[in-house]
Amino acid sequence: MSHRNARTTFHGRLLMVQRYQDGWAKAHIAAAMGLSRKCVHTWISRYEAEGEAGLHERSSRPHTMPTRTPPAVENQIVAWRRRHRCGPEEIGVKLGVATRTVSRVLHRRGVPYLRDCDPMTGIPIRASKATAVRYEREHPGELVHVDVKKLGRIPRGGGWRAHGRREEVRGRGIGYDYVHSMVDDHSRLAYSEILPDEKGHSCAGFLTRAADYFAAHGIDRIERVITDNHLSYRRSAAFATAVERLGARHVFIRPHCPWQNGKAERYNRTLQTEWAYRQAFNSNDDRAQALAPWLTVYNTQRRHSALGGLPPISRL
């Protein structure tokens, strides 16, 4: 099938040939069909060389591509992606390949986007809804995102991630950890704590400690705090008091629109992928102890695509 802007189709090209065989001059054929003489000459020459088969479309792909990425490098890119489950920018830095080249190789090899994959296994799953409207506050502290991620506790000796699905019953009935997190909209500086619940007093205490952490990193003033509509945020007097003590304004997302708190939601996904599910921990304490070191790496070393490949600390 011809592309939408093609001046001729197979039947139009065949008509050129028929008129030429009937004695029409190439210039007259071109004038009658609104084409250039070069176009008419090309299709008639192709017909004389190949017959009617030569009047069909051909692939525009070149016969040789000397600058194409070597297969060995493509294999390294795909292998690095599957092993470490990281984005094109990080892969490009590690392998010395342009980010755009990495993206093209992954697309050409049919590798799904990270957002469409399970963070632990890498198996494609249904993607979550995202917004096409991006924004970023002008300075640190203008807006912070707060959220809670609930994780099942790990039994002693490891859960099903360590022993397989057949041992799934090992972790049932031991409860959950509630990972409270706060992310600065401008710098992406993050702070997280593991607490036993998500009640109002716990959320209020976390907000105060998170503000102290931000202040220690140069964010002295928090102007707005955005959260979802959970009762611990919306109806808690303790949390409202904590926000008031910061001199901030509490902002709620619209109901059923979690992407409005997207920076915290995205951070939660990174938290799961690179900390909680990065390896099979032998106990809940082991996972909890690994949070603080990972958080330090996240804020000071980990490359962030929204910051031009720099860590959050670079904006402070």
Brief write-up:
It is built from 13 helices and five strands. With 316 residues, it is of the alpha/beta class.
Question: Compute the gyration radius: what is it?
Answer: 29 Å
The number of helical runs is: 13
Largest sheet: 5 strands, mixed
Uncertain regions spanning at least 5 consecutive residues: none
Shape: elongated
Main sheet: which strands, in order across? 3-2-1-4-5
Calculate the mean pLDDT score and round it. 87
- Tell me the total number of β-strands: 5
Give the termini distance in whole angstroms: 56 Å
User: Helix/strand-derived class?
Assistant: alpha/beta
Helix fraction, binned, reads 40-55%
Tell me the β content: 5-15%
SSE sequence, one letter per element: HHHHHHEHEEHEHHEHHH
